[in-house]
Amino acid sequence: MPVTVAVATVLSLVVGACGSDDNTASTAKDAKIDCATGSIAGAGSTFVQNIAQQWVKDYTASCPGATINYQGVGSGAGIQQFTAGTVDFAGSDVALTATERSAAEAKYGNVLQIPWSAGAVAIEYRLDGVTELQLSPAALAGIFAGTITKWDDAAIKADNASTTLPATPIQVIHRSDGSGTTAAFTAYLSSAEPTVWTAGTGKDVKWPTGQGAKGSDGVTKAVKATNGAIAYAELSFAKGNSLSAVKIKNPAGKFVGPDEATGVTEALNEAEVAANLEAKINYAPKGANAYPISTVTYVITAGVPSDPTKANLIKSFVTYALGDGQSAATRLFYAGLSDAVLAPAKAATAGIGTPAGE
Fold first, then answer.
1. How many domains in the chain?
2. How many Å apart are CA 349 and CA 325, to the nearest integer?
3. pLDDT at 329
């Protein structure tokens, strides 16, 4: 029977004043980092891209002997590149499937998936003249299912009685690449409104409507350029592009935004973390202030990388991300991990490069 750890205080959301374009120095230069040298490359999740690239910037500023590159290409592509051996680690917003784990373990032996950040999947939109918008799960699912096509639809009006909504056509923007953010968003839709959202769940789905764009940055740019557009992305992308985010009606009946300090925390407090560190997200959280569309994001790497120099650098970098690197969440609108998740994540990281049983 898998051992699970109930996450009573899984993740603490730390909200700051800057968006994803904040490139000011962090406290990393003043932190004591057990630096390693060499060069490693990672690819994957665009959800985690903003904070991962900040970690790279801060770590290498303190550790000039290290070169680290991370490219946001989507969770699916990142896992494929890791399994093919073209990158040293992957970022993913969903845990490895059994098929993905089997393929990775065939190449590397033991494979670790370590939570290193978390946050809200924001429903970002551009609707000229409307800066505040509320949606029930049924209305949100109807929009992405293509059954609600105009912004003045009765279902949307019912959620926004005090707002004048235009008859502007709704332009759905979705990810065109394999995406962990898509997996989290479609899992929410399927959980909240299974009779409305029937397109399934996963990193790739057959979208009933809309147009695709690559990466969180791609869908955000498309929304910003199109009046009437709506999409989903990690909150820092909406913030960094001055886009509004929808307040979603949670199971308690309250409309909650992704940037409200307690929203992600309350939702993710109800998650459980299995022995393999996979977080089981509850998309129908009971918390009165819970923002329900939230996810944990993972770094995926070999337990014992074949190159000892790379193993040391991966271990050092992830250790930093799980330590002083968590403070970057204050500026980039992510959720910092609490001790309840950090303890097993740090323990797993400490074992990188050490064969099992040693």
1. 1
2. 14
3. 80
